[in-house]
Every structure is written in C-alpha cells, then in structure tokens.
Write a structure and sequence with these properties.
Layout lengths: L6 H20 L3 H19 L14 H31 L15 H35 L3 H17 L5 H21 L5 H20 L1 H10 L2
C-alpha cells in the first residue's frame, strides 16, 4: 500500500486541490473550492501527523515588524496593481476586471466593514495557507529548495491562484496571477513563514476594496493614464 508520505501521493493531492480551486473559480463559486481545499489539506496533514507549522504557520521573529512590513508591502503592491498590472492585463485580454462580487461596497461603509472582516478572518489567512503554505511547501518538498524547485513552486501556484480567481474575468486571472508571484516570493524570502504573506495579502485586499468603495481605483488609473 502506498504511503501518504510518498511523492506520488503528494503530487495527487496537489493536483486534486488545484483542479478543485480552478474549476470552482471559473464557475464563479470560489468559496466552495476554498472550503473543499481546506478540508482536504487538514485531513492530509492530520493523517501525515503534521501540524499547521509544517505549512508556515509558526511565530515570526517580530509581530510588529511583520505587520508593519505587510502594511508597506500591501500599499505598494496594491497601488502597483491598480496603476500598472490591471491596465496591462486589460489591454492584453481586451476585457475589464469583474469586481461585481464587491460592488456593494461602493458608498456603503457597513458593507465595507463586513468585507474587511471576511478578508482578515477568512481570505488572507486561508488563501495564503492553501496556495503558499500548503501548495508551495509540498512542491518544494518534492523538488527541493534549489532554484528550479522554487521557480516551479511559485509559477505553478501562481497560475492556479490566477485561474481560481476566474470570476474576475480574464484580466483578473492575469493580474491575480502576477500578485500571486509576488506573494510567493515574499513567502520564500520570509524563510517559509506565512505571516508576512498573510498580512501583505490582507492589506492588499483592504486597500483594494477601500479604493473600489470610494472610486479611487478608477481615479488613479485615469490620472496615471490621463484618460
């Protein structure tokens, strides 16, 4: 009987989780994909005898430095995304980003607060745990920490990350995939500790939703590109 610690089993789990995330993302049911992925990952870690620390959930050297660095990175990455990545992806795909899922935040501070709770309680922690923590770590465990293994882990998980956001249109797939690359690099540079990627992701989404709520994303794009 094949051991749960064998590479073929690891590869199979990665592929199953990836397929689930991609299919539900393209079908505009991302919540189902994330829920299914979390259940599979928790069961896999349980039967392998690993804790969440095995996928990056361990205490950082400094919480203050980690949170502050996440804030700065989140601001820079989100502004870079709004001003450059999103217009670039829209240009090459000929489609607009579909933000209809969070359109209700526009001019409604109560809905905005609700979305922030969702981002910080669920999205940032769970998505980083799934994509960077579990998937990247498993790929690196199979391929090693050399440059090829690191490159493949970042590339593969970023492609899945982008496709799992297919409900944001083709432009959203590309821009999210690019942000996934950045978050993957942050995870590696953090010595595979998830917390900086989690806080960065959380601040990216917080600022992004805030900009949409006040129309700041369109304002910045129009100012930068002089539309």
């Amino acid at each position: 009987m094949m051991s749960i610690n064998s590479s073929p089993v690891h590869i199979l789990i990665i592929l199953i989780v990836s397929a689930l995330l991609i299919i539900t993302g393209l079908k505009k049911q991302p919540g189902l994909g994330i829920l299914g992925a979390v259940i599979i990952i928790i069961l896999f870690l349980f039967f392998r005898g690993d804790s969440l620390g095995a996928i990056g959930f361990f205490k950082p050297d400094s919480w203050f430095t980690t949170i502050f660095s996440g804030l700065i990175l989140g601001i820079v990455i989100q502004l870079f995304s709004v001003i450059l990545i999103e217009p670039f992806s829209e240009k090459i795909t000929g489609t607009k980003h579909d933000h209809s899922l969070i359109d209700s935040v526009k001019g409604n501070w109560k809905v905005f607060i609700q979305w922030l709770l969702v981002v910080w309680i669920f999205v940032a922690v769970i998505e980083e745990g799934v994509f960077r923590g579990f998937m990247m770590t498993e790929i690196i465990n199979i391929l090693g920490v050399g440059l090829p293994g690191l490159f493949i882990s970042v590339f593969f998980t970023s492609v899945v990350f982008g496709l799992s956001h297919g409900y944001q249109s083709r432009s959203g797939i590309i821009s999210t995939g690019i942000v996934g690359v950045i978050l993957g690099v942050i995870f590696i540079l953090s010595d595979f500790n998830l917390w900086l990627a989690i806080f960065t992701h959380g601040f990216i989404d917080t600022i992004g939703i805030g900009l949409i709520a006040i129309g700041g994303d369109k304002y910045l794009q129009n100012r930068f590109w002089k539309k």
